[in-house]
């Protein structure tokens, strides 16, 4: 599978959250959390512009990228960063860690200043981070991409027919900045920027109809709380009925294989009908031999 890539101006550093949502019931998507830490000090009143680039190995239109307005959901912010924090709303929503040894603060921004360019079988999202003197030096963006085809694929296992009828296998192959899986043009662009990701959190979110079969690395598993169900699911009925499972990794290369139990009434009835016809035909053939 092709890799995604992330590169940016050398006066900042990046931490990345990747949330892949896939299920048997809803549309798949990938959601990114991007924390940009400004390293250089600004001593003038001019606004400085920093550039961040995110390459995804499939074509996108600008309308496929949706800003997640976290500033209006303080309960979700607290759950998302999983620490005791002080949240205040001024020009931006400001979040400060209470228990940290050093005073850490970041501001949540909406993603408006960005462009999309389609090249080399993929898309590059260019994000402009604007920073002024006396502003918070750390910014957090959260946005959703309404496509997922390059990361999760269905395939047929060499399994018995009955299992094939009732189960569907999928695999997820996720990598970041894997140079041998990137187009040469993207690799050349990255050489002129910084591409180190200082911290990464990868989450696979799915419903309990998908069972993990194998994985290439250690992970934590938990059931999604009501807050996360409200965030990941869209209609009230699904929020009450579906259980969501969250798999958490801290690696840049994740491979997972899982199986989905098919719940198709017509398919089940069709299979039962074929089995009954086969059994009846066998009996007829057997009794016919004794005539």
Helix content: 10-25%
What is the CATH class name? Answer: Mainly Beta
What portion of the residues fall into strands of 2 or more residues? Answer: 35-45%
In total, the number of domains comes to 1
The CATH architecture assignment turns out to be Sandwich
The helix/strand class is alpha+beta
Shape, principal axes of CA atoms: elongated
- How many DSSP helices? 6
Radius of gyration: 24 Å
Question: What this model shows, in words?
Answer:
With 291 residues, this protein is an alpha+beta fold. The chain has helices spanning 74-81, 161-166, 184-190, 226-232, 236-241, 265-289, and strands at residues 5-8, 12-21, 29-38, 48-56, 65-67, 85-89, 93-97, 105-109, 114-119, 122-131, 138-145, 152-155, 167-175, 197-207, 210-215, 220-223, 244-249, 253-261. Strands 2, 3, 5, 6, 7, 8, 11, 14, 16 and 17 form a 10-stranded mixed sheet that branches. The chain has a 4-stranded antiparallel sheet with strand order 1-4-10-9, with no helix packed on it. Strands 12-13-18-15 form a 4-stranded antiparallel sheet. The model has no long low-confidence stretch (mean pLDDT 77).
Short description:
The chain is elongated, with a radius of gyration of 24 Å. With 291 residues, it is an alpha+beta fold.
Offer a few descriptive terms.
291 residues, alpha+beta, Immunoglobulin-like, 10-stranded mixed β-sheet, 4-stranded antiparallel β-sheet, 6 helices
């Amino acid at each position: 599978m092709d890799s995604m890539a992330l590169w940016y101006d050398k006066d900042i550093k990046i931490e990345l959250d990747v949330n892949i949502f896939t299920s048997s019931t809803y549309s798949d998507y990938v959601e990114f959390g991007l924390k940009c830490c400004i390293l250089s000090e600004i001593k003038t009143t001019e606004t400085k512009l920093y550039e961040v680039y995110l390459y995804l190995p499939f074509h996108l239109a600008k309308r496929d990228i949706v800003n997640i307005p976290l500033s209006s959901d303080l309960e979700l912010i607290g759950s998302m960063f999983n620490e005791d924090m002080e949240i205040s709303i001024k020009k931006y929503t400001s979040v400060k860690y209470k228990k940290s040894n050093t005073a850490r603060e970041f501001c949540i921004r909406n993603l408006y200043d960005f462009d999309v360019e389609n090249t080399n079988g993929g898309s590059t999202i260019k994000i402009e981070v604007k920073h002024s003197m006396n502003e918070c030096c750390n910014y957090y963006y959260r946005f959703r991409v309404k496509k997922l085809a390059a990361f999760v694929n269905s395939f047929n296992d060499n399994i018995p027919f009955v299992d094939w009828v009732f189960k569907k296998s999928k695999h997820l192959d996720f990598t970041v900045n894997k140079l041998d899986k990137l187009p040469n043009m993207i690799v050349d662009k990255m050489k002129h920027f910084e591409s180190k990701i200082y911290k990464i959190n990868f989450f696979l979110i799915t419903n309990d109809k998908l069972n993990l079969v194998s994985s290439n690395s250690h992970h934590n598993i938990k059931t999604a709380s009501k807050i996360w169900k409200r965030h990941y699911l869209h209609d009230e009925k699904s929020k009450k009925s579906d259980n969501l499972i969250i798999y958490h990794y801290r690696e840049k290369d994740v491979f997972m294989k899982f199986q989905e139990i098919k719940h198709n009434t017509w398919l089940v009835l069709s299979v039962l009908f074929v089995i009954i016809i086969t059994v009846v035909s066998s009996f007829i053939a057997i009794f016919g031999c004794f005539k």
